[in-house]
Amino acid sequence: MTISRTTRIVLRCLTVLILGVIYVPLALVLVNSFNVNKTFAWPPRDFTLEWWKRAAESQGALDALWVSVRVGLAATAIALVLGTMIAFALQRFKFYGRDAVSLLVILPIALPGIVTGIALNTAFRAIGLELGMLTIIVGHATFCIVVIYNNVIARLRRTSRSIEEASADLGADTFATFRRVTIPAIRTALVAGALLAFALSFDEIIVTNFTSGAGTQTLPLWIFSNFQRPNQLPLVNVAAVLVLLLSIVPVYLASRLTADPAAVAGART
Amino acid sequence: MRTLHRHPRLRLGLLLGPPMLWLGVAYLGALAALFVTALWSQNSFTGLIERQWSLDSFRTLFTVDVYRTIALRTVGVAVLVTVIDAVVAFPIALYMSKVARPGLRRFLLVAVLMPLWASYLVKAYAWRGMFSEGGLVSSIAGLVGLNSPGYGLTATIVTLAYLWLPYMILPIYAGLERLPNSLLEASSDLGSKSLGTVRRVVLPMVFPAVVAGSIFTFSLTLGDYIAVRIVGGTNQLLGNVVYDNVGAANNLPFAAAVATVPVVVMLVYLAAIRRTGAMESL
Asked: Tell me, what's the ipTM?
């Protein structure tokens, strides 16, 4: 290698520094959820579990958590079905307009979230659908489809079709082959995609903010509406840690399943 | 069962039907509704939307000073965020691709990717803690005798640059990976020092990758309205104007008109950079 020693050392120091800047703010949220001081003056003087206990008793936060979980599960289920269907259609068939369909799938996350949000808001109002749980689920499912699609199509490209042909030759009909050969081959991709979709849905706020009514709050919305209230601030920190964990842990599990961190990241971009 | 097996077109139709109803009809329909709404007018007295073609919303957008200022400020913030991200991402990407050993490289890749998935809201909120009174930024600034900038445009730019940094690191890293080491060796054999090689060989070669990253940093900044609410104090970006006009002010045509600005800016930007070859390195 031709990079000089000095340059290497400088680069190493910069890398450590940048990683520090990336992780310190997140660590700070975690530390502050145990910080006795309500204004989070630095450095913290003492630690307490009080905020975690109070968060566990806060009805508003618990309701929001429950809404988030239900929305995440419903949106993931819808996206799982639709995303898998598109992946099969695009991978197994050649047809006119194929490129347009693949562009359409990524459009909901390629456009700025605010555009997707206000577009859905306009449409829901136009057809007179009341904003609430259902509209949040529709919004989330729309941008979760691409995550499932990416995972399934990547697996389909690597899976040979000859085992399906063998199954058909041995007398299995289309559905038996699908159930007993195709599904087992793509199972981990489905699970990984579902985990990623759930993570994406669980922490989403930009679109959710436009598609939720007055009565329904997801956990991120609860954080967003409470972070300016001084007496709620410690609870907001606890909720933030929870959202952080529930957005990272599924991704970690998914990356173990697919053994390809780059593919996991690609699903988000 | 047999019919399905014998008619691939039927299978394709059944597979594509439901997703296309969802994305092609519902989602594209929603986008179309948005742009049509931008061309309707609102009765300023009753607040009801009048379904008559009018360019009123766009006229307001271009003639009222406040909105022009906000639009320019948003684009300015997007440019600054992009420049900061490119400058910060380059050394870490260079280290990952050309200095770190394979094991460390994989670890760094995961370390850079993980925050990409961490909740956007929590990351923005984390910087509220950093910039708070007596927070970490003010204690560090205090050490060197400076004041923390507090909540405002500076905090917004820092936070947005932080949020979109992985989107810049990844394409630059991928671009550097593709850059053959023999080129670097040739440059040093011909007598160039490290910095000279970086400036005259590496930078020109990874420029398309930087442009590819800038698509994300630029587009994401243009559409943001949450981070600026959390750390921006009273400052407004285009996203806030959209959001406030959907909610409090309830002027949907105007909100829709404002929302077309990021889309148009991005389309112009994408058209301009098609020539650099950045689209292929996405």
From this structure: 0.79
